[in-house]
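Q: Convert this sequence to C-alpha cells.
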Amino acid sequence: MKKRHTMLMVWTIFLTLALLPSMAFSWGSATHAYINDHLNKKPGLKKELNMNEIYGGMAPDIFNYIFKHPAYMGYLYYQTHNEFLKVWDEAKSRQKKALAYGFVSHNDVWGADFTAHHSGRTFGQDEGYIIAKAHLLKANLEQVPGYNMLQLPDDITLEICHTLVETGADILVKKMDGSIGQKMITSAILRNPKPLSALKKVYDKEFSDLLLEAYGKEFSEYAGISHREVAKLFTSADREFRKTIILYGQALMQDETIAIQLISEQMTELAKSYLAVYGITLPEGVDLTPLIKFAIEQSMEICADDFEKEIAATITFVNQQLTSHEISY
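A:
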C-alpha cells in the first residue's frame, strides 16, 4: 500500500508540473478586489460584508503559491477555480455567504477569470484578455537581450508574461481607484466584525474552515494525508495568503514609481520559487528586478487603451452570471 501511494504521488508531481503552465493566475489580486468592490452593489450593504466579498474574490488563488507542495497545486487550483460551488454550498452564515459570494465570482468557468483566461469582452475574445496581452508582452521581451540570456522555455516565458501582465493591470487599477491597496489590506485584516481580542482566532479559522468543509474530505483522500494535516495546510495557506495580500496592498498604497519597484522586488522572489519547481536555477548574481520592472511598465502600456473598458465589461458579465446562477444573499 505504501509503495502504491508513493507511485501515486510521483505521478501526481509529474502531472502537476505538466499542468503548471496552464495554471495561469488570470486577473491579479488588485483587479479581483476592484471587481468585487463593484459587484453586488446593494443599498445599505454593510462595509464588513463588502470586505468579505473582496477577500473572497481574491482567495481562490490561495493555493497558487504553495511551491513546497507541488504535488497539491494542480489539484487545489482546479478545485478552487472549477468546483467553486462547493464553497457556496457550505457557507451558512451571512458572513460566510459574503466570503463565498466573492469566491464564486472569481471562477474560471463563468466568473471573472473566464474573461481573463478564455474569452475577453473587448480584446482577446478567443483566448482571454490577459492571455492575449501576454503574447504581446512575450514578443516585446524576446527583443531584450537580458531576457533571452535566461534561455527559458517558451511555455515558461508565456506563463511569466501572463503574471507580469496581471501585475501591470493591477497598477492600472491603482490609477482607477487610489484606495484599492487599503481595501485589500482591510479585507485581509478586518473582514469580520468580531472584537479585536478575537481576531487571531477568527482569521486563522473562519475562511480556512470554510475551505476545509468544502474540499477537506476529498483532498485528504487524494493526498493520502489525515484530516488534521489538511486543516493545518489550509490554515497555513490562508495565513500566508493574507500576509501576501497585506504586503501587496501596502505596495499599492505608495506612489506609482515606488509601487512598481516594490512589487518588482516581491515578484523577483516569487519568480525564483516558481522556476525552482521546474528545476531551473538562475546564474549566480542575476538580479531579475530591473527586467521585471521593465516588463510591468511594458504591460501597462500594452493594456492602457482598453483595460478600463474590459474591467467594466467583466463586472457587467459577472453580475449577470451570478444572477443567472442564483448566487445572492
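Residues 8 and 223 are 9 Å apart (CA to CA).
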